[in-house]
From TrEMBL:
Its EC number is 5.2.1.8. The gene is tig. It comes from the Bacteria. Residues 162-215 form the PPIase FKBP-type domain. Pfam families: FKBP_C (PF00254), Trigger_C (PF05698), Trigger_N (PF05697). Keywords: Cell cycle, Cell division, Chaperone, Cytoplasm, Isomerase, Rotamase. This is Trigger factor.
């Protein structure tokens, strides 16, 4: 087999492949066996008819089709390996020549990873926020913890912000009842923002038995984007009574004996969250600087795939009904053109980021060990509420295990750049982020490696109770 690689652009190549028919003998053997199983020829058992008999019965063309369809992908992979081509995505094949019993020639156009010249980041310095917790922040955390142990008590007064109400809801659009917007006995915390816009203003000041109406714009369903007249009837009003913030509460809600110990622990937890947020700031700033200083050509087909995936994910909750999706955007004050522009921009940045970090990982010879891959799988499984085995099975079926590996590797590559950056806080003091990004040992696994993972870790840390 002969192959050549023709560079069409910095991100796309054409691979020209020439295969002598002598190399296709195993493909012909498999093709004859497969076709023989499908064709019934008198005098021969299924799968036992000789090649010459098969060809005399069905002709040469079906055999050639079977051989070509099987041989091209395999010979393409062989050519890619021989030419050390770093392909991205699926190739576009074209058969350019078939001379029966002589030669098969085809081309494959495919996106490739571009050559990227990394910038010199020597002496790079960035600034992050100070880690400082205030008494007010600790008090807010304590109040949230007290709320978990609060009790609801019925009150004979008009509803106020923060109260819990039981309500019946109904809605109409142009006089037509909206069934999916009707419910009864719904419990709602006033001010939580978990229901439609305008409901808080309607029920604040209402007492049990009062009925109010208001107009709001629906954001989902068949009437998304349309104005609806909503009727809400308050059935009951309850207020949440919080336990006293004393030693008894500390013993009830945590492992500590005194309220002062509990407050100290909350303060320490807040500090850890803010330390993690420092890591987020450092990571994002370094990445932005890298993207700003580096020219990263974008492979067209890869970008198209990224855009398509993002649009698919956005429309999926609306059963891929683009009209309903457009109405939902309108309800948010956005247009479809604005959404498409945002997706284009986000997709370009995502593709550039992946290619840039892959280049850094290659330069640093970054690898991912089994423990690191397992840790990411465990985290993702917990995030999606499935068992690790089920998550792995799904990832295998969808071909995502390689993507998970690549994400961890990119995160480690970015962490290596952050480790080489001088990070100072707003007060001008140098910040040690080695706890989050590792100390440079290959065995270290950076805690802040990728936006979604890290931000969820911050949220989970803040949400834990001291007893956890």
């Amino acid at each position: 087999m002969k192959s050549t690689v023709e560079q069409l652009s910095p991100t796309r190549v054409k691979i020209n492949v020439e295969v002598p028919f002598d190399e296709l003998k195993p493909n012909f053997d498999r093709a004859y066996r497969k076709i023989a199983q499908q064709v019934r020829i008198p005098g021969f058992r299924p799968g036992k008819a000789p090649a010459r008999v098969l060809e005399s019965r069905i002709g040469r063309a079906p055999v050639l089709d079977e051989v070509v369809n099987e041989a091209i992908p395999a010979k393409y992979i062989e050519a890619v390996r021989a030419g050390e081509v770093r392909t991205l995505g699926q190739p576009e094949f074209e058969v350019t020549k078939i001379e029966d019993r002589e030669v098969l020639e085809f081309t494959a156009e495919v996106d490739v990873r571009p050559e990227i010249e990394l910038p010199d980041l020597e002496g790079l310095e960035i600034s992050v926020d100070d880690v400082e917790t205030t008494d007010t922040e600790v008090a807010e955390q304590l109040d949230e913890l007290r709320a978990r142990f609060g009790t609801l008590t019925g009150v004979e007064r008009p509803a106020e912000n923060g109260d819990f109400v039981s309500v019946d809801l109904s809605a109409t659009v142009d006089g037509e009842t909206v069934e999916e917007a009707s419910t009864s006995g719904l419990s709602y915390e006033i001010g939580s923002g978990q229901l439609v816009d305008g409901i808080d203003e309607a029920i604040i000041g209402a007492s049990a038995g009062d009925t109010k109406t208001f107009t709001t714009q629906l954001v989902a369903g068949d009437h998304a984007g349309k104005d609806a007249e909503v009727t809400v009837t308050v059935q009951s009003v309850k207020q949440r009574e919080l336990p006293e913030a004393d030693d008894e509460f500390a013993q009830l809600a945590s492992e500590f004996d005194t309220i002062d110990e509990l407050k100290a622990d909350l303060s320490e937890r807040l500090a850890r969250v803010k330390k993690m947020q420092q890591g987020v700031q450092a990571r994002d700033q370094v990445l932005d600087i890298l993207l700003e200083r580096t020219e990263v050509p974008i492979p067209e087909k890869v970008l198209e795939g990224e855009i398509e995936n993002r649009k698919h994910d956005a429309v999926h909750p609306f059963d891929h009904d683009e009209e309903q999706f457009a109405k939902a955007l309108e309800a948010e004050g956005r247009t479809l053109d604005e959404f498409n522009a945002e997706v284009q921009e986000e997709s370009e940045k995502a593709v550039r980021t992946q290619l840039l970090l892959d280049t850094i990982a290659d330069k640093e010879q970054t690898s991912v060990n089994d423990a690191e891959l397992t840790e990411r799988i465990m985290y993702q499984a917990q995030r999606f509420g499935v068992s690790p085995d089920e998550y792995v099975q799904r990832a295998q079926q969808s071909g995502q295990l390689t993507a998970i590996y690549a994400d961890v590797r990119r995160g480690k590559a970015l962490a290596s750049v952050v480790r080489g950056t001088t990070v100072k806080n707003a007060s001008g003091e140098e910040v040690d982020l080695s706890e989050l990004f590792g100390a440079g040992d290959e065995a270290d696994t950076p805690a802040v490696v990728e936006g979604t993972v890290e931000e969820t870790q911050v949220t989970e840390e803040a949400a834990k109770t001291p007893a956890e």
